[in-house]
Specification:
The complex is a heterodimer of chains A (386) and B (96).
Chain A lengths: L2 E6 H11 L4 E4 L7 H11 L6 E4 L3 H13 L4 E5 L1 H6 L1 H9 L5 E6 L13 H4 L7 E4 L3 H16 L7 E6 L7 E6 L2 H7 L23 H33 L6 E4 L6 E6 L2 H14 L4 E6 L1 E3 L3 H7 L5 E6 L10 H10 L7 E6 L9 H9 L9 E2 L5
Parallel strand pairs in A: 2-3, 2-4, 4-5, 5-7, 6-7, 10-11, 10-13, 13-14, 14-15
Antiparallel strand pairs in A: 1-8, 6-12, 9-11
Helix pairs in contact in A: 1-2, 1-7, 3-5, 10-13
Chain B lengths: L35 E5 L9 H5 L5 E3 L5 E3 L9 H5 L5 E5 L2
Antiparallel strand pairs in B: 1-4, 2-3
The chains are: A alpha/beta (386), B alpha+beta (96).
Amino acid sequence: MSKRIGMEIALATAEAVALCRPDVIAAYPITPNTHIPEHLSDIVAEGRLDAEFICVESEHSAMSACAGASGTGARAFTATSSQGLLYMYEVLGIVSSMRLPVVMAIGNRAISGPINIWNDHSDIMTMRDLGWLSLFAANGQEAVDMMIQSFKIAEDAAVQLPINVNLDGFQLTHMVEALFLPDEKEVDRFLPRRKPYAALHPDHPVTMGALGMPDIFTEATKARDQALVDSRTVILKVWKEWEKQFGRRYEPIEAYKTKGADVVMLTMGSMGETAEIAVDELRRDGVPVGLLKLKLWRPFPFEEMKKAVRGVKTLIVTDRCCSLGGPGGPLAAEVRSALYAEAARPAIENALIGLGGRDVTVDDFKQMFRQAGKSKGIYEFYGVRG
Amino acid sequence: MAQKKWPETWQEVTPGCMIFEGGNSREYHTGSWRAQRPVWDNAKCIKCGICYIFCPEACVKEDAQGYFAADLDYCKGCGICAHECWPGAITMVEEG
């Protein structure tokens, strides 16, 4: 039976990972994800989880250790944030190209500089093109649920790809929330042991990570891209199974009060929770606004996005990251690409907000809704002084 | 029928480009990269085998008399054997 508990989300995330019985955990601490591997090391030390906890000397080593472990057929987990993610960057594409279903939690944090340890999405956005599946949690319950779902999705015979679960640093990682934690039996029923496509073993030689020369690289890349596109079916299937067993529904884009809404806001991560309150309050005042919460970042849900904005006049895309010298926020750029060929599409405004941990309040969301249609240019730094 | 060396289409690429048969680097003749070839002067050779040890391609082989020669299908002409050969028995010669 699931237990309703009050727990810091990072610790609950670690408990969820432990329920998935990983064989190998390799991690290096960095704020704000640290409590996840720290708590896992406690769980291993207490003998509650039979796993190899490798105290590596860097994030580059953490991801390399996960790659090697996953190559032998083990279930491997790591967690990181910001500069740590950048330090493991070199290995990220290797892991996905070798089709190793490593699972990683990212406590999202701004990339320096100026040096900043607080939340935004500039870390995960650097790796959006590296062939990892990517989920965004809006609250602690979603972080816990997605952690367990991730192993099943990543290890599915039709997927075999690494996956990351994004939790906003501090806003989620350090928040104490009341949530349901499934028990071992429930998770065992949901998540089978990993059956690797291939595993490194002296009795059955296999080469992983061989050279791919110009005459094969295009085909290899097409195959990788198709694997991500096709993973969508498995993600939806796993989410259906989850809903059936645990009663909580997951979809690539969750709609909140969008019926009859002229202006709709799109968020990723924890901001969706605050924006809901703004929508409630404006709706109470008779203002027809709604909210879309993106949970599946990779593969990008093109079809769901087109469907979700049908009939909407203005779509405000929020981005917790700036593509410096580029088209504004990465989310807005992708939404614009998704909708470009549509005959009827909303006007799209892009608000860059919540950068480097700045609070985004209910009033901020209400003001953004009220200002809809007045945005100048293709993106704006909401609330920037000067 | 000879086995195909490369997948013809992207659908034939194995997940992760994994290779399940051993020893197939033999099919790739790196000797085509070579601009210079090592030539042994057996009169100077003392059969120490340092060329054999240092060859990064592992393509230097010992013959029945204990002298050495490179397998030119794989020798890239890097010149490491000539550089390491302290009796000076190996000369790098331009490929014609």
